Amino acid sequence: MTSFTPLSTFCLLLFRMQRIKSMFYHAYNSYLDNAFPYDELRPLTCDGQDTWGSFSLTLIDALDTLLVLGNRTEFQRVASLLQDTVDFDIDVNASVFETNIRVVGGLLSAHLLAGRAGMELEPGWPCSGPLLRMAEDAARKLLPAFQTPTGMPYGTVNLLHGVSPTETPVTCTAGVGTFILEFAMLSRLTGDPTFENAARRALRALWKTRSDIGLVGNHIDILSKKWVAQDAGIGAGVDSYFEYLVKGAIMLQDEELLNMFQAYDQAIQNYTRFDDWYLWVQMHKGTVSMPVFQSLEAFWPGLQSLLGNLDSAVRTFQNYYSVWRQFGGLPEFYSIPQGYTVDKREGYPLRPELIESAMYLFRATGDHTYLQLGFDALESIERIAKTPCGYASVKDLRDHQLDNRMESFFLAETIKYLYLLFDPTHFLHGGGTEGDGSWEEGGDGGQCVLGAGGFIFNTEAHPLDPAALYCCSRHAQDHQELRDILLSLSQPDGRSKPPAKQTEDPPPNPSDSIALKPGEKRTPPLLSCPVQPFNARLSIFGQVFTDNT
Ligand code: DMJ
């Protein structure tokens, strides 16, 4: 497709890429001027606030977007600034899910792109480096959440003290199953298998809880393994679990993950699909509990295209695009039978999912419908959400009221996917074996070829390079050999013992499950999950999420 792009289309694409750059810098500069070091910009009051932690989240999340837009000098400046200013040793209750996808994912991706960004690389990169150490540091803070009898993590962890004894054991499905990409990459780069093992243990435990008809619900008690919210669907609370099974299978060439997804997909197609929409159904009976489309579901056509299910992906995309055209954005919830928004769910917080699907489908089909969606999105966001100080979440798509919030995913994902949609030759689309397509340096023996096989985007649009997994395998082997030697030296008879076999479900020490010391002051944390607070009582009536008024 790219070699035959007519000149007029080419110029149009270039023009749109420029506009997206301007959008990015309008928001980014405003964040730096008015909100840094807080997590997020408040675009109506032109100041900042901490939201998901207290780690300059927007800057971490936006770091790789700088490189995507070609700004190597600012990438270098910010990478150094973050190393000097961000500290994860803080007494903050953080979402395990959000910290992983935004912070660990953002730092890992920036680490892997550091060579291309012209950063000075330390010997051993990409198997070592300051951004990798930061990612590892952040991920280590999350590990106490995984020390549970089931291996499924708590939703919230205190970065300094670990999991509070009063922490709720109820978390959403995505909060259990969205770790394998970042944790496996971390383990393979650093040679420490702890992260990947934790993610796999959680995935296997979750898999065992599926219903007889092969579906999972929305919120689970990670201690009792009981489903607390039994609505099964592909949207809020579940979405990235399925995404990580597919992308994990691709990135790690892992059949177990693919088999899991395919079994789920069969049940999803059987029970939840209706006219190429996906409804919410009761996980044990398969009866419809909510005939609603949620904006978070719009990632699904993109995921289907990764699996080659193009026909179905195209039809579902058309359904979702019709909702976009109706409102000039995607409302959080859309009632399919009524063809209208759902009460209290009329907002559009500038989410990326439909644009993300458009990017994949444009690459797969070359159909200009997807460029049109990108153009519509660009125009809508400029018209409805732009403020003198950034871009604001739309509180209500019917009257264009705004909220004083700019989520970090706007710069990490929405802008990035828009730009990549309009730049079909971007290095992140992969396929390059020369020039800009690959990057050769570092790794064990200096034979690391990065970027030649494409990238896998984590659920926050942070590109991960599957080729890097192989750069550090010798490094990991050396680590293992060193560990074995140290172990053998510590044996009384000096003889080496064979390394202990990794069990699938290692029983944790119960005292490890809570890292806070008795008597310490704790704030009862909110139920935490990717999207919104959850109220089990309302879920019984088929309204999965609480009214946030
Ligand atoms: C992002 O943080 C991630 O894409 C997550 O998987 C879902 N929610 C937001 C974007 O909508």
Give structural attributes.
three-stranded antiparallel sheet, 18 helices, 11% strand, disordered C terminus, binds 1-deoxymannojirimycin
What does this structure look like?
One of its GO terms (biological process) is positive regulation of retrograde protein transport, ER to cytosol. GO terms for molecular function: calcium ion binding; mannosyl-oligosaccharide 1,2-alpha-mannosidase activity. Its main location: endoplasmic reticulum. Its EC number is 3.2.1.-. This protein has 549 residues and is mainly α. Helices cover 44% and strands 11% of the residues. It contains 18 helices and 23 strands. A 3-stranded antiparallel beta sheet has the order 5-6-7. A 3-stranded antiparallel beta sheet has the order 8-11-12, with no helix packed on it. A 3-stranded antiparallel beta sheet has the order 13-14-15, with no helix packed on it. β20 and β21 form a beta hairpin. The protein is globular, with a radius of gyration of 23 Å. The structure holds 1-deoxymannojirimycin.
